[in-house]
């Protein structure tokens, strides 16, 4: 249920009440390196495959999306693995595997080899990102759950804003191999930081003697997280319309300058509000923050449907940061508070799975809508999807709130 700040979750007596502990800071940095490795490559991989192997746009797109396929497959095991074998152990193994995968981009001399590397990289990324989130959540004080989750999410926000820009700069001024070496160096740095993480004693004590979960469908789709998961599936579908079709929309409308600043505005808006919204969620419950995010996201999509000037797109980027950038960490806090402490990995993985499904279905479902009606109608339709998501939240979760 977990639609308000939980008061029934008691921290371990030896757990510190400080938020920015060594585990939190190192985990934040590891998470940043994982997301940077993803965003360095996702925006250029299709074009790289087409140029390097003389393949079609569809084949190039498959090379890019094979990372997501690997990540989605890993979701089936990620949460259970983190809960069963230990968050630090899984994090170390799969940050290491991701680092090895990064090394193989340069020698991958054919499209099948590149697809295989992308799949393994995505698989390891999914397990590592789930494990580091679960590990950090285990050291966030329960009374500061939303605040800590929001600060942690800033790493992925910064990677979203700056990763693609850095990649395009490197491609323009150097070459793809330079970008692959930068990605590898980033992964190596993340691996070193992972080795430095030391689990606090209260976590070791909590893990000692605990019953280790057996894999089942409930470890893939945790029942307690399904409602917020379906909500995030709809939100993820709308977000897919932004990240997938923004460039095409900008070129079609001649608003490329605004599109270039979209994610910068996104990151700045989320960065500013992150100092307030997490604390509000911890103190006053989930509803104020979720509704604020929904209204902001719906306004962003509506503005894109009506955009005629570059500043409209920049403002839509800021509103998307206040919208999706607010909803996602808030939903993560809800998911964590919905499950026992021994099942945090499964709870987080379930939420990510539903969100990934929404983002994955977006290009497929929305591509036909764009072809039939144009970008403006699509963004108006997505604004309506967010309204429907708001109704779903109100009926299924929001009414259960109590203060």
UniProtKB/TrEMBL annotation:
<keyword id="KW-1133">Transmembrane helix</keyword>
<feature type="transmembrane region" description="Helical">
    <location>
        <begin position="313"/>
        <end position="336"/>
    </location>
</feature>
<dbReference type="Pfam" id="PF07690">
    <property type="entry name" value="MFS_1"/>
</dbReference>
<feature type="transmembrane region" description="Helical">
    <location>
        <begin position="289"/>
        <end position="307"/>
    </location>
</feature>
<dbReference type="InterPro" id="IPR011701">
    <property type="entry name" value="MFS"/>
</dbReference>
<keyword id="KW-0812">Transmembrane</keyword>
<feature type="transmembrane region" description="Helical">
    <location>
        <begin position="148"/>
        <end position="171"/>
    </location>
</feature>
<feature type="transmembrane region" description="Helical">
    <location>
        <begin position="348"/>
        <end position="371"/>
    </location>
</feature>
<keyword id="KW-0472">Membrane</keyword>
<feature type="transmembrane region" description="Helical">
    <location>
        <begin position="90"/>
        <end position="109"/>
    </location>
</feature>
<feature type="domain" description="Major facilitator superfamily (MFS) profile">
    <location>
        <begin position="23"/>
        <end position="401"/>
    </location>
</feature>
<feature type="transmembrane region" description="Helical">
    <location>
        <begin position="115"/>
        <end position="136"/>
    </location>
</feature>
<dbReference type="InterPro" id="IPR036259">
    <property type="entry name" value="MFS_trans_sf"/>
</dbReference>
<dbReference type="InterPro" id="IPR052714">
    <property type="entry name" value="MFS_Exporter"/>
</dbReference>
<dbReference type="GO" id="GO:0022857">
    <property type="term" value="F:transmembrane transporter activity"/>
</dbReference>
<feature type="transmembrane region" description="Helical">
    <location>
        <begin position="255"/>
        <end position="277"/>
    </location>
</feature>
<feature type="transmembrane region" description="Helical">
    <location>
        <begin position="225"/>
        <end position="249"/>
    </location>
</feature>
<feature type="transmembrane region" description="Helical">
    <location>
        <begin position="177"/>
        <end position="197"/>
    </location>
</feature>
<feature type="transmembrane region" description="Helical">
    <location>
        <begin position="20"/>
        <end position="47"/>
    </location>
</feature>
<dbReference type="InterPro" id="IPR020846">
    <property type="entry name" value="MFS_dom"/>
</dbReference>
<feature type="transmembrane region" description="Helical">
    <location>
        <begin position="59"/>
        <end position="78"/>
    </location>
</feature>
<feature type="transmembrane region" description="Helical">
    <location>
        <begin position="377"/>
        <end position="397"/>
    </location>
</feature>
<protein>
    <submittedName>
        <fullName>Permeases of the major facilitator superfamily</fullName>
    </submittedName>
</protein>
<dbReference type="GO" id="GO:0005886">
    <property type="term" value="C:plasma membrane"/>
</dbReference>
